[in-house]
């Protein structure tokens, strides 16, 4: 008997020591930072105002992506109703860098492709309304575990009651372990002859998920019970319940684990948790028993049966009325086709965001601190870019070798340098090699605007109507090799105007011009345009032997599109902490690199590329009133197909080619330009309208001789010149009525 007492005392001491150890574990982890939360990346918020260029169809697509419910009458946050050209919606409100945007009820009226009216619920005009931004992904740690943290006062009606009814009816009465629940589970399982019900409390489930493994053993169960009691000893029920709501495992999205009801609501319904109805809450709570077994996307019949069982439990316990239960059970599951938060939705853009963030933040800051990253990403433009690429490649697929062609695309705002869409692969939703950022490819004729800009910065020597020779020539290099450039059509075109060399992408006249200017001077112009790569000053560089990524090309053309002002491309606007406190802004930077007059002349020549040169096919699909500027690029054996072009509000660069640098059947005009044209047709941009700089003047000239003319002379056209470089005016050509200047100007372009 004495030995038994001694052994009992030793056991109690060991048990007490183990309990003290467990108590320290519980307090240390539960009192500190309980979760590492990955950074969340958001698209740009849609800002509504009268006059905004936005079609009703695009607006509704964005509302669908944000998870707004379509209802006959918009009722409650996240609801929208459509009647003709009017959309009524209840916005959700959001915490932005500048402050909180309140939830409100608004009415948006459309006319054509524009917002024609914006009012509050009472009818008062509204200057601007901003929707919450679309969550486009996150930056995950090596063990990708994700959650959207919620507070207990943010959960919808019936959430707690449903959880109690299904998982732990005695939650507010027990102290971590419920003997009544254990006894009830034992009885149900014994009478059923199978395991039908568990006896674990919510606190025990939280302990298992938070502290322990899924091992099934008596020792693990005993440890779980002890820790549950200790947890309830130190923390109140509301705190434990809130932790459970954020910790419970509810599914798997690829490699990413879905934890907590906040994220599960977004993942399965594309809605915030606060907006869920009874039937949706019942589905999520029902899934706690087996997230994989009751996955509504994979096993909808099981999920529906389980959801309806939970609804019946709510009716049995008087949480909802029998009539409400019947109505709830008649609702469809209502889950979205795929998870709205998939981290592979826009992999190329997210990859770019990560790279830019790593310049300012440590890896653990991005994967653990729950930062909120606001970007310039435009989901509407991204969708149009993806559809344009897919449609064009499908249309070209009959050509030999097109199926091996890869692609990249960069879309930005010419004025701000903000990247609005990015494609890194012909399969843009699959993560992998990001060609937009990493594919370094020879740029071909895309370099030519830099050569002509170098010339036009010397107005005493070169104007758009200077005569240049498009004739064969050869240059002997330092290595003794002879360089003999050729035109694409293998023909020489004689004496031409300077602008015609760029418009028609003639190699002979362009290379000769570049050699006259000096290759080092052209490379300096490229550097001022934003190209940071150091290229050797070989003559072949003048025809695009140098290689850049699509992002670097976009940087170069950004300066051309923005009147000579260099604006570094950026994807991030601002960063907030997990608590919504402002952390860092990324304002756009701007630096004037070129005389606006010289840029104006280059833009004029690039508009002629589109009207009469290698880009003229665009106007078979786009209205002639849409002024655009751009340049095609094709490398040797058509290994690379490029196009870079811009309107007033959109710059887009497209590259097509093979990863193995093999030949393709596509030139810049037959490949990349086709994608660009399709995108511009869908994006419906504003026409290019660069104000004429003070140092530029328009002069009338004879289109055949380039000499000064008079507007009354037949065929006379206007051309822009840097002031002082224009030809002297010609004499009037008679007393007849002057030629219609606008029509004559257009006719001159078409010659």
From TrEMBL:
GO cellular component: outer membrane-bounded periplasmic space; peptidoglycan-based cell wall; plasma membrane
Protein name per the record: Penicillin-binding protein 1B
One GO biological process term: proteolysis
Species this protein is from: Metapseudomonas furukawaii (Pseudomonas furukawaii)
GO molecular function: penicillin binding; peptidoglycan glycosyltransferase activity; serine-type D-Ala-D-Ala carboxypeptidase activity
Keywords: Antibiotic resistance, Carboxypeptidase, Cell inner membrane, Cell membrane, Cell shape, Cell wall biogenesis/degradation, Glycosyltransferase, Hydrolase, Membrane, Multifunctional enzyme, Peptidoglycan synthesis, Protease, Transferase
Active site residues of this protein: 167, 445
Record field: catalytic activity: Preferential cleavage: (Ac)2-L-Lys-D-Ala-|-D-Ala. Also transpeptidation of peptidyl-alanyl moieties that are N-acyl substituents of D-alanine; [GlcNAc-(1->4)-Mur2Ac(oyl-L-Ala-gamma-D-Glu-L-Lys-D-Ala-D-Ala)](n)-di-trans,octa-cis-undecaprenyl diphosphate + beta-D-GlcNAc-(1->4)-Mur2Ac(oyl-L-Ala-gamma-D-Glu-L-Lys-D-Ala-D-Ala)-di-trans,octa-cis-undecaprenyl diphosphate = [GlcNAc-(1->4)-Mur2Ac(oyl-L-Ala-gamma-D-Glu-L-Lys-D-Ala-D-Ala)](n+1)-di-trans,octa-cis-undecaprenyl diphosphate + di-trans,octa-cis-undecaprenyl diphosphate + H(+)
Penicillin-binding protein transpeptidase domain mapped to chain residues: 408-647
Keyword presence, Glycosyltransferase: yes
Residue intervals of the Glycosyl transferase family domain: 143-312
Pfam families: Transgly, Transpeptidase, UB2H
């Amino acid at each position: 008997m004495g030995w038994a007492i001694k052994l009992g005392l030793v056991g109690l001491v060991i048990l007490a020591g183990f309990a003290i150890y467990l108590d320290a574990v519980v307090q240390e982890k539960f009192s500190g930072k309980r979760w590492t939360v990955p950074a969340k990346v958001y698209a740009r918020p849609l800002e509504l105002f009268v006059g905004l260029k936005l079609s009703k169809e695009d607006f509704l697509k964005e509302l669908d992506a944000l998870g707004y419910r379509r209802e006959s009458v918009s009722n409650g946050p996240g609801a929208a109703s459509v009647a003709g050209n009017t959309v009524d919606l209840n916005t959700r409100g959001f915490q932005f860098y500048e402050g909180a945007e309140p939830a409100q009820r608004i009415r948006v009226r459309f006319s054509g492709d524009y917002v024609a009216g914006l009012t509050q619920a009472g009818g008062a005009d509204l200057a601007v309304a901003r929707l919450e931004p679309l969550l486009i992904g996150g930056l995950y740690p090596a063990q990708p575990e994700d959650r959207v943290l919620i507070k207990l006062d943010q959960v919808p009606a019936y959430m707690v009651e449903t959880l109690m009814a299904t998982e732990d009816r005695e939650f507010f009465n027990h102290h971590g372990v419920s003997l009544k629940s254990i006894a009830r589970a034992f009885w149900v399982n014994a009478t059923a002859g199978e395991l039908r019900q568990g006896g674990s409390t919510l606190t025990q489930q939280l302990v298992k998920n938070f502290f322990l493994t899924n091992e099934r053993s008596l020792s693990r169960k005993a440890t779980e019970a002890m820790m549950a009691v200790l947890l309830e000893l130190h923390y109140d029920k509301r705190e434990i319940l809130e932790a459970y709501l954020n910790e419970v495992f509810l599914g798997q999205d690829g490699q990413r684990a879905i934890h907590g009801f906040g994220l599960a609501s977004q993942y399965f319904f594309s809605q915030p948790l606060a907006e869920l109805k009874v039937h949706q809450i019942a589905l999520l709570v029902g899934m706690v028993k087996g997230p994989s077994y009751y996955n509504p996307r994979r096993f909808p019949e099981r999920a529906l049966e389980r959801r309806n069982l939970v609804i019946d439990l709510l009716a049995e316990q008087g949480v909802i009325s029998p009539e409400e239960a019947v109505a709830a059970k008649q609702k469809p599951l209502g889950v979205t086709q795929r998870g709205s938060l998939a981290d592979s939705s826009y992999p190329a853009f997210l990859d770019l965001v990560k790279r830019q963030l790593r310049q300012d933040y440590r890896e653990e800051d991005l994967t653990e601190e729950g930062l909120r990253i606001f970007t310039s990403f435009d989901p509407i433009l991204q969708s149009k870019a993806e559809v344009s690429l897919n449609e064009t490649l499908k249309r070209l697929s009959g050509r030999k070798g097109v199926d091996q062609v890869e692609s990249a695309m960069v879309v930005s705002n010419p004025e701000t340098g903000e990247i609005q869409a990015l494609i890194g692969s012909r399969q843009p939703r699959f993560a992998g090699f990001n060609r937009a950022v990493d594919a370094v490819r020879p740029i071909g004729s895309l370099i030519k605007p830099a050569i002509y800009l170098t010339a036009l910065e010397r107005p005493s020597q070169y104007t758009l109507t200077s005569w240049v020779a498009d004739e064969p020539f050869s240059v002997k290099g330092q290595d003794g090799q002879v360089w003999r450039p050729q035109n694409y059509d293998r023909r020489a075109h004689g004496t031409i105007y300077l602008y015609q060399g760029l418009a028609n992408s003639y190699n002979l006249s362009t290379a000769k011009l570049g050699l006259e200017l000096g290759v080092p001077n052209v490379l300096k112009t490229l550097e001022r345009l934003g190209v940071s790569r150091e290229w050797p000053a070989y003559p072949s560089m003048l025809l695009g032997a140098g290689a850049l990524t699509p992002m670097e090309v976009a940087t170069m053309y950004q300066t051309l599109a923005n009147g000579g002002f260099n604006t570094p491309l950026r994807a991030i606007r601002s960063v907030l902490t997990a608590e919504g406190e402002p952390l860092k802004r990324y304002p756009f930077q701007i630096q004037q690199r070129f005389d606006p007059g010289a840029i104006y002349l280059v833009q004029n020549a690039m508009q002629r590329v589109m009207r009469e040169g290698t880009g003229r096919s665009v106007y078979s699909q786009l209205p002639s009133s849409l002024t655009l500027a751009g340049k095609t690029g094709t490398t040797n054996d058509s290994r690379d197909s490029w196009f870079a072009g811009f309107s007033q509000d959109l710059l887009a660069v497209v590259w097509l080619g093979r990863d193995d640098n093999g030949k393709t059947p596509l030139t810049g005009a037959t490949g990349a330009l086709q994608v660009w044209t399709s995108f511009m047709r869908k994006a419906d941009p504003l026409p290019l309208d660069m104000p004429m700089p003070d140092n530029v003047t328009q002069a009338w000239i004879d289109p055949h001789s380039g000499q000064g003319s008079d507007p009354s002379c037949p065929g006379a056209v206007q051309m822009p010149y840097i002031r002082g470089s224009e030809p002297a005016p010609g004499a009037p050509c008679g007393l007849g009525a002057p030629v219609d200047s606008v029509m004559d100007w257009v006719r001159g372009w078409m010659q």
